[in-house]
Each structure stands twice: as C-alpha cells, then as structure tokens.
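ARCHIVE CARD
Drawer: 12
Card no.: 0347
Subject: one protein chain, sequence and derived structure
Cross-reference: see card 0346
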Amino acid sequence: SEGTVVFANEPLLTVEGTLAEAQFVETALLNIINFQTLVATKASRINHAAAGGAVIEFGLRRAQGPDGGLSVARAASVGGVRSTSNVLAGKTFGIPVRGTHAHSWVMAFPDELSSFRAYAQTFPDACILLVDTYDTLKSGIPNALTVARELREKGHELAGVRIDSGDLAYLSRESRRQFDDAGFPNVKIVASNELDEYIIDSMKSEGGRVDVYGAGTRLATCAGEGGGALGGVYKLVRIADRPKLKVTSDIAKATLPDRKRFLRAVAPDGTFIQDLITLADEAVHPGDTVFDPSNPMQHRALASGIRLEDVRSVVMEGGQRISPSLMLDEMADRCADQLRRLPPGCLRFINPHRYKVSISRDLKVLRDRLMEEVMDGL
C-alpha cells in the first residue's frame, strides 16, 4: 500500500500477465512510482527536520509542468507534508490549501503598509503578511505590528508573517522577539526560500524561531544531496516456468530472479528489525541464515522472537481491482506510523543506521546458479 516504508533493492510491485501486457504498463508504472516515491521520501525527510513545525508544499512554480505539480502535491502529502499552495491539487485530492500573498501584492500599492492593510481587510482571520519585500526588520515587521494592533482593535488577530529571503534563522529570531515584546506571542513565523531538510536542520541548530516552513523548489524537484531521480527498474524475472535474471558485473545491481515474497521482521514491540526477500513458495523461520544481496560473504541468522509480515498484497486480479483505494490521509498516517517503527538511527541525515535487507538461502542459491549459467554461456 502507498505510504509503506521501503528500502533499496526491494520488490515494490509484481506484474503477472502476457509478455505484451506486462511490457505495455512498464513506462507508466516507472514514471508514477519513481517520481512520487522520490517526492514522498523528500517530503518525509523535510517533515522530520521540521520536528513539530508545520510544512507547506510550495513547489508548483518550480515543478516539472502542471501535471508534475499535481504529482508533487499528492506525493508530498503521503510523505507528511499535508498542505499545499496548489489550489488545483487541493480540489483534486482534498489536500488543505494554504498560502500567503506575493511580493507583487506589496509592490502594487503605494507603500508596504497600505498593502498590508488591504490584505488584512480582505482576510482578517487568516492574514499572513509577506514582510521581506523591502526590509524585513526595518519595514516589514514594524508595518506588520501596526496591522496586528489594528486587527486586534477590530476583534481579530494577525495569523502570521512570512520571510522569504535573507538569514532566515536570524530574521525569525528577531521577528519572534519583536512580536513577543509587543504582546503578540501567537503570531506564527513562516519561512520559505529554497528550504530542504538540511537547511531546516541548520536553522533549528542556530536557534531559528520558525513555526511553519514553506518547501518549494527542493521538494518539487528533489534537488540536493541524494535527489534528482530515483532509479527504480522494471525487470523480467520469470517467463512461463523459467526464472530469469538480468546479469551485471556489479552483483548489487543484478536483479533477483523468479516470483518473490517481500517480508518484514517485526519485534514484539512493533519495531521493524529487518526486511527479507524470499522465493514465493519458500518457507523461512527465525534462526535461518539470510544473506546480504550485495555481499554474499555477509550473512546472519534471522532474529528469534519476531513475526514475519508480508509487506505486499494483491491489488488487481484478472484485470480488476480487488483492494480498496486508500485516502491520502490514510496513506500519510501509514507512512508516519511506519517511520516511528524504524530503528531511530535510520532517520539521521548524516551517517544513518543501515537498515538490513536480506535475501533467503534458496533465493541466493537460485541467483548464483542462474548467474553461473549465463556466464558459462558467454
């Protein structure tokens, strides 16, 4: 199901059919799964860095086309970024829509204060002012405070301010101080401008006082370390009754042959211990020897006191869907729950714990035999 946490070299999806039918859906499946898995992962990392702060998806203007923008909003929601500035995505998928005005709104008025007053008059109960058009601390925040006082006199409260440039950690601290000193501790500080998990983590380490993060370019394009593209592949593993193998000089990139099960070892407290890939009809038990797929010399015993859960389930059979479609909120809840069940070190941005993904003995033996047969035939 969508929202499931997965790791490299695991079989996310199996398609069975005639060769022509299976080939027909390859491009569509890879396009959808690769991009949206990448975005959901990036969103999850950004959400983790925010550590309790809200995150809004701001990426439409930098996404790869209008359809790409919709995919970004949907996948980001699965990954934990549960609101978007993309109005069409809100209508299409039911994602809460959030946002502020643009710099052009401020520049269209004779002065900044006039623009703030006009916006506050239009949205008195949802007023977030963009304060960095001219000078955040000398102009934007003082004018926002003026409007905050005027709103309070009319029975409303300023919702927040957004900072979109400059030293966001410093500016957020100073903005927070000025609003607190003036008696407006509930005004939210929103930050945007090329944010990703590393920048957010750095801002927090520097004492930034940001309540809401707007993640745009680096979320929508998955730019930065480890981003850009996800190299998921779609390979033939069995034809009729014959297992098949794509051979490469790098054993880590060799496909795993035949029909397979994808299992997750779960501790009694619900923590995920490791993942295991086996042949479809193979029985495995705690204590069995399992192998690192990229380094056959590394092997370990499957832990005792665990239960093995099938990660995948049948979605379509005979060309008909047989499992219900999940709502986006259900997918996001599933993702959040599974992330909590990972060993804590897996979520570190620097030198993360390496989650174990193993293959069974029978699958290893089959892979090794097929590789030998192919190489002997060259």
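Annotation on reverse: The first strand starts at residue 54 and ends at 57. The chain has two domains: 39-220, 238-376.
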